[in-house]
Structure prediction request, 503 residues.
Amino acid sequence: MKTRISLWLAVPVLALAGSGYTQYCWTEGTRRLEVNVHGTVEFSDDDRDVKSLSAGGSFQVEESRLLVFIGRRYEVTADSSGRLSRTYFDHGHATSLDNQGQAWLMGVMPEVIRRTGLGAAPRIQRILKQSGVAGVLSEVTRIQDDSAKRIYLEELIRRGNLSAEQLDSAMLQARKIGSDEEKGDLLVDLAPYYLKDNLRETLFQAAGTIGSDEEHGRVLSELVKRDGGSGETLRLAAKSAGRIGSDEEKARALVDVAEHDKGSREVGRAIVSSANSIGSDEERHHILSVVLGNEGGDREVLTEALRSAASIGSDEEKAAVLTDAVGHYVEAETVRKEFFNAAGRIGSDEERSKVLLALLKRPGLGDATLAAAARCAEAIGSDEQKAGVLVAFPASSLQGMQQTSDYFKAVDSVGSDEEHARVLSELIKQRGLATAAVLRAIESAAKISSDEMKGKVLSEAAAAYSGDPQVRAALAKALDSIQSDSEYRRLASAMGQAGTVKR
Prediction:
């Protein structure tokens, strides 16, 4: 099988006096075709010759072969009144247009017309009269050059008064344009015809066939800029952005969508869905934070944003998203599940602590959330970081059985006696601590290895809560866990003064 190499080059330049001069040339194998046009040209109804030229204009087509250089050439010029003169050259010699010359011209002219898009406007109007929109679209399928195909589609849509169904068919042809730049420019230029009714989907489907990430992103941003007040346009743009491969370009397009969004649930979900395919942790954090700022109050969007955050690899970026989400946190099972699933995937003790501390500052947290926060804190490896979170739990949060149990399980997991004692001391100093919590604090203090640290906590509990018989009994029991005689005597004396039963 022979390999066919084609090269297409179109170079528009400006002629003297500001009139337009354009040259087109292409090579296929050993064949070279060149077209030079000065002014405006219109072709005959059978596409076999030039019908008219603007005054002083010219049209020239020349075909040659490799190593031959000089082949056939056909020239048409117009005088100042638009009267045409025609000249035919065969291998450099001017001659009459014989049968062979006419056959050559009949073959080459349709090719020139379809490749260059010259005379498109009058030709399209002629085809519309003869065969309607279907006829023009059929002609478009015969056009191989992307630039010419774009010219025909744009002219048809602008002047053809197409129905919605016909506009849909025209956009199907636009999807077949190979050049991303040509396709992108066409979609942007024709946006006013499609950003309405039920045609938006067709437009964005075509945008999704653009292979260049940069061009795809540019088109989406332009469409959003033109129709940013439409929630459907924003949703479709966000969905289409998900097909962009570059994280940077995808994020840029999604930010454009988010900046135009007014808090639509569907738009927010579409943005998050596309953001899930962003590999860059930093870019995904940026997008999710913007979405939370727009739709953070929507439970479904918040849930999906938290689910997306869970798969962020960077602990720092993941924690930043969760911290942003704290401002929109609501007491709902789905939200709670996704929030703590994401928080539980933070490996850094410091970053996990930041998230939990931010959450604990939020007023009105429910029992289930407090219990989950305690369980999440328990998994922190650093005793210092873990203790810092546990100290932040307000006394009023330890009312229910579940959160109290989970909280003290986390406290008991603090390995450092100093940090363990610090948590219990800070807790006991708070007012309004429920008796059940005081009893669990005493029980936890008994597990501290250091008699000095243990005695300090028990002394504080005795001073603050020894008026309660249950507390006195618990303190007396905890006293038995002290091994140091001197510490035992000191603490027993303190408890005796507080009225606690001694051994």
In short: The longest strand covers residues 6-14.
